[in-house]
Amino acid sequence: MAQYQPEHKAKDYPEISRRLTRKEHLEALEWAKQYGMSRLDR
Predict the structure, then answer these.
(1) Is the distance from CB of 40 to CB of 29 less than 8 angstroms?
(2) Phi, psi of 27 (to 5 degrees)
(3) Cβ distance 11 to 22 under 8 Å?
(4) Ramachandran region of residue 8, left (φ > 0), alpha (ψ -120 to 50) or beta?
């Protein structure tokens, strides 16, 4: 997710037409861990 870069028609959707903030990225990692996802460093 840290590599997410809005492309193509993302500019038409303000909610996804920007890169993730560090806070959002860390929050997503925490959610993933809570729900049993692993190998999140790769």
Answers:
(1) yes
(2) -65, -40
(3) no
(4) left
CA 23 to chain centre: 10
The pLDDT-based confidence of 9 (bands split at 50, 70, 90) is very high
Spatial separation of the C-alpha atoms in residues 9 and 31, rounded to whole Å: 27
How many domains is the chain partitioned into structurally?
A: 1
Put simply, whether the predicted model's pTM sits higher than 0.85 gets the answer: no
Residue 39 belongs to domain spanning: 1-42
Average pLDDT over residues 11-22: 91
**Spatial distance between the Cα atoms of 24 and 1, rounded to a whole number of angstroms:** 10
Q: What is the DSSP letter of 25?
A: H
